[in-house]
Write a structure and sequence with these properties.
six-stranded parallel sheet, globular, 10 strands, 37% helix
Length: 290
């Protein structure tokens, strides 16, 4: 008697060369067949052709760009807002057999600053262009979700890091400032940091359970940035730190409530020490194990 071979489910992703997209791909490439779109997203003709001709069961839209000093707003608007909406409309017009789920990678920046834990139903009021473009796509999804032939999920990801992250992210930037003994300015505020592996596990959970609603992807822990910087320094560089204007509380907190994520099945989260060690891995530093 021959057992029937079970074929892998297929996931189509954009942003497969990015930090999170590539991590997810490497983590789950044995469980799923993951197809990464190999061209620039601006070439929507090719992307449109791929969507129409390739077979896949799930679609994760990782691709996005961060604003740098208020520049490139036109490109940010195209990549972060117009293209995701185009992709969803194209999927709707080209219904595929067995296609189940579109997962939109959003951000905690859609919420804006808050002096309490942020839950999924809290008001969204972005404080930057990145958050605004992500909120626009969320609004499109939430307003039309009942009209789509497939399910759509929204993953609102809080701070994560990786040793592959480039400038423009908090931990790589502050690490560079410590290394070069530059002043650390206005850091008395709280954030929520989650390990990139916990982010990937959460996204896989959303796919597995076809969670068709917004979900906070966060650790649920409030971490003061001054504390984080001191911990990072003690684990690696041991430089003299100079904090400027950090005595006064900034009232610019963003930290999440992850009760819903826990309810769906992610029970344990890696702590700050593990997060920082993962960032420092591969760097030429003397990491202690405290």
């Amino acid at each position: 008697m021959h057992l029937k071979k079970v074929s892998k489910k297929i996931i189509f992703i954009t942003g497969g060369k990015g930090v999170l997209g590539s991590y997810f791909h490497n983590k789950y490439k044995r469980k799923y067949k993951i197809i990464s779109f190999p061209y620039r997203l601006e070439n929507f003709i090719k992307l449109n052709k791929w969507i129409k001709t390739k077979k896949f069961h799930y679609f994760i839209h990782f691709a996005a760009i961060l604003p740098k000093k208020n520049k490139h707003y036109k490109k940010i608007n195209l990549i972060n807002k117009k293209l995701p909406i185009k992709i969803i409309n194209t999927l709707q017009k080209n219904i595929k057999k067995d296609f189940k789920y579109f997962l939109f990678i959003s951000t905690s920046h859609v919420y804006g600053f808050r002096n309490k834990k942020i839950s999924e139903n809290d008001r969204r009021k972005p404080f930057n262009k990145y958050g605004s473009t992500k909120k626009s796509v969320e609004d499109f999804i939430l307003n039309k979700k009942n009209k789509f032939y497939f399910k759509i999920g929204i993953a609102r990801i809080f701070n994560f890091t990786s040793n592959k992250q480039k400038k423009g992210n908090f931990i790589p930037d502050v690490y560079t400032r410590i290394k070069n003994q530059m002043n650390l300015i206005n850091l008395n505020k709280n954030r929520d940091f989650i390990h990139i592996d916990d982010v990937s596990r959460s996204l896989e959970l959303m796919i597995d359970k076809v969670i068709d609603r917004p979900l906070n992807i966060c650790s649920g822990k409030k971490i003061n940035l001054i504390t984080l910087v001191k911990r990072l320094n003690s684990m690696s560089l041991n430089k003299k730190l100079v904090f400027i204007n950090s005595r006064k509380k900034m009232n610019q907190d963003i930290y999440g409530n992850n009760n819903l994520l826990i309810k769906f099945g992610i029970k344990k989260f890696k702590n700050l020490n593990v997060i920082l060690k993962s960032f420092l891995h591969g760097k030429k530093t003397n990491i202690n194990n405290r």
